[in-house]
Amino acid sequence: MNQPLEALRALMAERQIDAYLVAACDYHQSEYTCSHFWATRFLSGFTGENCTLVITADDARLWTDGRFFVQAEAQMEESFTLMRMGDKGVPTVTEYLQKTLPAGGCLGFDGRLMSTREKKDIEEKLEAGKIRFAWEEDLVGMVWPDRPDIQPAPVFELELRYAGETAESKLARLREKMAEKKADAHILTTLEDIAWLFNLRGGDIPCTPVFYSYVLLTREKADLFAFPEAFPEEIRKMLAGCGVSLHPYTDVFEAVAGLPEGSRVLLDEGKVSVFMEKCLPANCEVIDSHNPTWAMKAVKNETEQACWISSHIRDGVIMVRFMKWLKEHVGKEDITEMSASDVLDGMRLNAPLSKGLSFGTISAYGPNAAMMHYTSTPETNVPLKPEGFYLVDSGGHYLDGTTDITRTFVLGPITQEMKLHFTAVARGMLNLANAKFLYGCSGQSLDYLARMPMWEMGINYRCGTGHGVGFLLSVHEGPQGFYFMNRFRASTGTALEPGMIITDEPGIYIDYHYGIRTENELMCVKDEENEYGQFLRFRHVTYCPIDLDGIDTQYMSEKEVKWLNEYHAMVYETLAKHLTEEEAAWLKEATRPVTKAG
């Protein structure tokens, strides 16, 4: 028996709640969270970050996307049924609630965890059933006796030589955006935006250097609500110098309730919680819009761009050393998924300017690599053998940038079909990276370039092709993204801008057999401008060989072979000077030119 689940059902029965919804998020709609917010893990056992639970008196269901299907099947409690988002015939959460809730029934959830926009969407779809909502209580918290507290980590300032713009300048630009929308106040709840705005970083969430906080900004005042004990005296002085007042974290609700009557309040209903918006005085006018900082921080300034290159060169040296070590030692000594990732993680953590990993390293051998977001544990850890594929998706935070790279390594003999698939993934990455396009194109416009080699074989991958990357912030950053549908990332229709960073990571995942992914980060830059408009292109900012042991050029066009050789020549030219003579010689061979076969 799942005791927490039964305890939750008892509370639901007492309150006459027919269904209770629990999502994997925090009060700020963050993608990753600290352990205080791991309610879906506590109830279901599933550790994936995209997860929604719906619990009724006699049923419990778990929704997640295609990245996590295999993982969810392996981890979740038997009391839950997996709902494969996007699969034919699988209802969405709201469609399931429409069919499940009785007329006049009650849906419960923690109003601090659900966004206003999500509640409105559910409310609209359930209107015919006259469903009432119970959002004032956190029932999961009531049945979680040893729930971890939020543990605020020390906040530090990102120096101007890395940030490239002062907090005063960013605040002024944000107030200009408020003025354009005729807003009297702006409620900012997204942690990455707050950290970017003040050039501050923290450590409240693993692998995401942010700090739990809210901002209430008016034309005259800026109030930051956080854990004051995490702010050193020099940072308090810096904030005061910018006209920013620091307050305790939960005081934000009283401050919002105290806004002047008739205020026009700018906020993003997709990020602001039901509880927060309910605090607004009744006669306030809400201006529902994406936070202006969302798009502002996505376009890296010249200083950030230069720093980005430096951090990726440093990270490229690490990846080359890891690749060389792996190729030379597999099959000759005991190496497992976990010990291999320990080697790579250690290299990054000890590198100059390191501020930790940008996400938990995905170290996956053989069938485990078919799970896109697999995490090796002592129970699943397997040895690496001198055969097949080993996939490692990893990255680091540095004071001068954030990296995210995936390479699939050939450890020994592979089948011809595996070579076909490996080559198709490399082709997809190169096709997209070498795109030239007019200003106005979005990631949605270009996504097919990466998928084409897979689609030609009747294969697809159940995720986006790429995402934006934050500067010492979240490794997943909007608004830009590559995805041909809007199922996961509604922001993929955003026009690409020079200075945006975006990943390019197609893949092939054969369940229970193997997975292949090749991922580079790209920087959007200007190309020619003529009578047709401004053309844009991408610049590779990831420097690491693609394993030529998996490439069969008979499956490539002459142009694709040329792109591969050009990329490898650039990798060697960029990194060789930072390597020892022995390492440079190894890299020379790993980036050798190839010719079209067949």
Q: Would you kindly provide a written description of the structure presented here, covering whatever features stand out?
A:
The structure is a single chain. Helix content is 33%, strand content 21%. A six-stranded mixed β-sheet has the order 4-3-2-1-5-6, with helices on both faces. A six-stranded mixed β-sheet has the order 12-11-10-8-13-14. A four-stranded antiparallel β-sheet has the order 21-28-27-24. The N and C termini lie far apart (61 Å). The chain has 598 residues and is of the alpha+beta class. The chain is built from 19 helices and 28 strands. The protein folds into three domains: 3-142, 3-Layer(aba) Sandwich (Creatine Amidinohydrolase, Chain A, domain 1); 156-291, Creatinase/prolidase N-terminal domain (Creatine Amidinohydrolase, Chain A, domain 1, 3-Layer(aba) Sandwich), CATH 3.40.350.10; 299-567, Creatine Amidinohydrolase (Alpha-Beta Complex), CATH 3.90.230.10. Helix 12 (274-278) links the parallel strand 13 and strand 14 (285-288). The relative contact order is 0.09.
